[in-house]
Amino acid sequence: MGRRKRYIIAASIAAIAISFALYNAAQSNPYKNSKVWNFDSYQQNSLPEIFLPMQQQQQPASGDDGGIWIVKSDELSPSKPNVLAKLSSNLAESGYSMLTIQEDGIYSSSNLRASVKFKIISEEKEQAAVGLIVRLQDRNHYFVLVADAANNRFSLCRAEPERLICTQDVDVNVTMGQWHTITAQVATQGIAGYIDDRLLIQRYDQHYMFGQIGLWTKGDTEAYFDDLGIDY
Q: Residue 170, SS3?
């Protein structure tokens, strides 16, 4: 019991320290630039060249299929009329589909705030998890904040070759067919994760100190994304 108590106290102190460090990072180095993709200026049923699909499989990859990512119309989207849709490919059930932004590498800052709105539209609840990627080095090295509707869970996970390690999990209601928001605050001291503006995750982790942002789905999850934004 004494060891558990010491662990709880240490974890609480660490959370306070991370929160303080993240706050100081944002205040001492305020974000100077911002960018938002609402996908409304892009042609429907296409994928702009700046977005690169890829896939990470739990087993060695047999191909580069990253699921079907296209811009399409959704009149119920937060910013009408378009969304970025991840649709079924029937080829990604054992891995993770990802989409990254290829735009001169200017989003590789170690201090940033990113967010995205999402709606899971999968018919099967077992395929119902989406995420916001930060600090992406390549398809096998990144962090992702995962909203899992199948298990009503919000997690911070770190990708390594052939595995995904979830270092922090929080119970939270993620409703399928409803719009939610994931937000990540990233600094050299750690990563904080929000869902629907609620701070639920704070983690000290200095793996992959720089990297891009992106979108993520588990298996063959179908989902809509809107208002992907970054302050850096």
A: strand
Question: How far apart are the C-alpha atoms of 53 and 92, rounded to whole Å?
Answer: 12
Residue listed under structure tokens 């977005």: 51
End-to-end CA distance of the chain: 43
Q: What is the mean pLDDT of each run of 10 residues along the chain (232 residues)?
A: 46 50 54 92 94 72 62 96 91 78 70 96 88 94 96 96 93 97 92 97 87 92 96 91
CB 190 within 8 A of CB 205: yes
Backbone angles phi, psi at 17, to 5 degrees: -65, -45
Distance, CA of 85 to CA of 184 (rounded, Å): 21
2-231: in CATH 3.30.420.130:
no
What pLDDT, on the 0 to 100 scale, is given for residue 64? 44
Extents of the domains making up the chain:
2-231
Q: Residue 112: CA atoms inside 13 Å, Cβ hemisphere, count?
A: 22
Residue among 144, 143, 191, 146 at smallest CA distance from 170: 146
With a CB cutoff of 8 Å and minimum separation 6, the contacts of 15 are 202
- Alpha-carbon distance of 148 to 150, in angstroms, equals 6
Q: Are 130 and 223 in contact (CB under 8 A)?
A: yes
Residue that has been written with the tokens 């932004």 in this structure: 101
If you write DSSP's letter for every residue of 89-126 in order, what string do you get?
-SS-TTEEEEEEE-STTTT--SSEEEEEEEEE--SSTT
